[in-house]
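Q: What structure does this chain adopt?
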Amino acid sequence: MNLENQATDLEKIIALSEIMLENARHKQWDDLTHIEGERKRLLSAFFSQPISLKTGEVADGIRSILSNDREIMRLAVTKRDDLRAALQKVKQGKEAMQAYAAV
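A:
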């Protein structure tokens, strides 16, 4: 893979990471997971060959990707906690209905 192709591929990976973050911010989790699959494929291909880009360019790209991933994870944890709370309410409602039906 030549230098120009590697630069383009790294830009695509970073762009996908940014799109994933926007999807997380807008709670578009299905879209996020779809894009994550594409990004994973590109990352695997990118790092499966010798890197010709300057180390600083690659390091900056990795830092950007990791920063986006940290924010995505923070948003995902919030979503998980919201779902857990909603599930707990459903469980409590079910238990209340069972108790009422037993009377």
